[in-house]
Amino acid sequence: MTARKIAVVFHRLRPNAVQLAGQIALWAHNAGCKLICDEADVAAINQGGTIPVEASKSLRDADLLVSVGGDGTMLRSVHSLGGTLVPVMGVNVGLLGYLTHVEPEAVFDALDHWLNGVEGSAFHYDDRMLLNVTVHNNGNAQSWLALNEVVLEKQQSGHTIRLGVDIDGTHFVTYSADGLIVATPTGSTAYALSARGPVLSPRLQALLMTPVSPHMMFDRSLVLDPREEVVVEVMGHRPVEIAIDGVAVHTLLEGDRVSVRAAPELARLIRFDDDRFHQILRTKFGLADR
Questions:
Q1: Which of 63, 75, 90, 146 is the most exposed place for a label (fewest CB within 10 A)?
Q2: SS3 helix, strand, coil % of the chain, rounded to 5?
Q3: Given a cut of 60, is residue 1 above it in pLDDT?
Q4: Parallel, antiparallel, or unpaired for β 34-38 and 5-10?
Q5: Strands 179-183 and 207-212: what pairing?
Q6: Check whether domain 5-123+272-284 has CATH 3.20.20.140, yes or no
Q7: Could you read off the pLDDT of 3-17 as tens digits, one per residue?
């Protein structure tokens, strides 16, 4: 029987995350699993060569990816898979941790459940919608996948930007605002939440479009069918920063366009209890009954 292959991604600047990643590597070795990580992480996780860890240029052929950190590390983990449907287990050594469901003290029990249990009883898969984001400028096109959101935002303090929005080829509105967020339901608890957008169940398939500090009467979020495509064009001379899941990827100029649609690929998260999203939300926001 071929050994199961486990990939590990961890927050390199958090000593507790690095230490726990090393312990996971040791668990994998003792359980007869093969452990891989990014080439840049081998020295940190290998603990002086005492634990066999294989450097890999790609984590996409793993049977499980363990993400040790916070939600930012989870986003980096999902991006490293490039849309490949590898289950991702989030271990929370961050703060709120909407995406990371396993606490450090429970990680080895969770790994045992995954290795020896049956999906549907010992653990559950939650498939999450991704966005396909394509930037068009100077006759070129470049695309990314996003789990949370794409954000178009002003670069210059004290100035608004103007963003023309078409939905399925028909003009909808030109926003005068500090920015515009197009999010997945998963991303509704990220930046869109702080911009007063609605909270959506991640089991939904939808696009959530939320303006940031709009200078206009229409300041509402819009929930769209996943089959609808949003195209945003930069209007005016002020530059616009575009970020994918919190990482700035490009500066847009007048006439540049960004198309956003539901991606055919999915992200697969793994959880080990029956808590649904609304129960997690209740815990994170401290919504206990008085």
A1: 63
A2: 20, 40, 40
A3: no
A4: parallel
A5: antiparallel
A6: no
A7: 799 999 999 889 999
